Amino acid sequence: VQLVESGGGSVQAGGSLTLSCAAPGHTYGNCMAWFRQRPGKEREGVAWSEANGGTSVADSLKGRFTISKDNAKNTLYLQMNSLKPEDTAMYYCAGKYAGYCPLRSYEYNYWGQGTQVTVS
User: Fold this and answer.
1) N or C: lower Cβ tally within 10 Å for the chain?
2) How far, in Å, CA of 4 to CA of 15, rounded?
3) Other C-beta atoms within 10 Å of 105: how many?
4) Which pLDDT score, from 0 to 100, does residue 40 have?
5) CA angle, corner 16, sides to 78 and 50, nearest 5?
6) What is the mean pLDDT of residues 97-105?
């Protein structure tokens, strides 16, 4: 499975961005998630979308970030609002051939190349 992220860019603090992840044939029946890696830090989980439709967002990002998917379009989304400079990171889409979503990045089977988000 080839995952392709898009939608990153530069935005001022308080702004919004929507990231997309094209995942042909993968969104239905599988877990998909967003991770990010901030400068000098380890990769961290941002949001998860399970096969049964359940979603979750990292506690520190709740209220600002929303994950969703469109199975018909085989696309995963991450809506990011009220962006802060500390949200600056490379954002990655990940997929796992399972209905549940693990928290740890090493448990994922497929990754996109990442899309850069810079908040100033």
Assistant:
1) C
2) 23
3) 16
4) 94
5) 15
6) 90
